[in-house]
Write a structure and sequence with these properties.
Strand content: under 5%
Organism: Koribacter versatilis (strain Ellin345)
Largest sheet: none
Family: Belongs to the autoinducer-2 exporter (AI-2E) (TC 2.A.86) family.
Pfam family, one: AI-2E_transport
Main location: membrane
Shape: elongated
Keywords: Membrane, Transmembrane, Transmembrane helix
Number of strands: 0
Radius of gyration: 29 Å
Length: 182
């Protein structure tokens, strides 16, 4: 039991590190995009994007409020708003389908397909909580699976299966095999 708890703790630590790295990458994408668009206080909005990245679904929308308000107050009008919304779409798609699955694969050893499909399925059945808990659950599941496979591999390499000793009875007189000549 202790070993499973240790593995679970390590997996959750790796997931948290992956989430932190994902948040930093999302913040960098926001900072770069907002700076290119000329949105005021781009570093502040990027910082908020990193923090809100930990909240599934709602975090992306909360990230969007600040840059949209700054763009409208700056006087960029609907064109600036459309560019910020386009940046939001690009950042969310890149993060959801490329960055986050690749980071989870490298740090928490979660396959890319699982990090895309499982949150969608769990979100369908358990809504907010399914999406919130899907990534850490995947990290724990695949860590325990890897540990189990490694344990089996070690067990198989240390155990040798030998056939039982069979006594061979010899006949007193051996009969040579029949030879058929054509």
């Amino acid at each position: 039991m202790r070993q499973q708890l240790r593995i679970t703790g390590r997996a959750l630590k790796r997931w948290f590190l992956a989430q932190c790295l994902d948040s930093l990458i999302v913040a960098a994408m926001w900072w770069l995009g907002l700076a290119l668009l000329g949105v005021p206080w781009a570093p502040l909005w990027a910082f908020f994007a990193a923090i809100f990245q930990f909240i599934p679904h709602i975090g992306g929308v909360l990230t969007l409020i600040g840059p949209l308000g700054a763009t409208l107050l700056e006087g960029n009008g609907w064109e600036g708003t459309a560019y910020v919304l386009g940046l939001y779409a690009v950042v969310m798609v890149l993060d959801g389908f490329i960055v986050q699955p690749m980071i989870l694969k490298r740090t928490a050893r979660v396959p890319v397909w699982a990090s895309i499909v499982v949150p969608l399925v769990m979100g369908y059945f358990f809504q907010f909580w399914g999406i919130l808990l899907s990534a850490p659950m995947l990290a724990v599941f695949f860590a325990l699976k890897a540990h189990r496979q490694e344990s089996r591999r070690q067990l198989q390499s240390s155990v040798q299966i030998l056939p039982p000793a069979v006594k061979v009875h010899r006949r007193a007189r051996e009969v040579p095999p029949a030879v058929i000549e054509s």
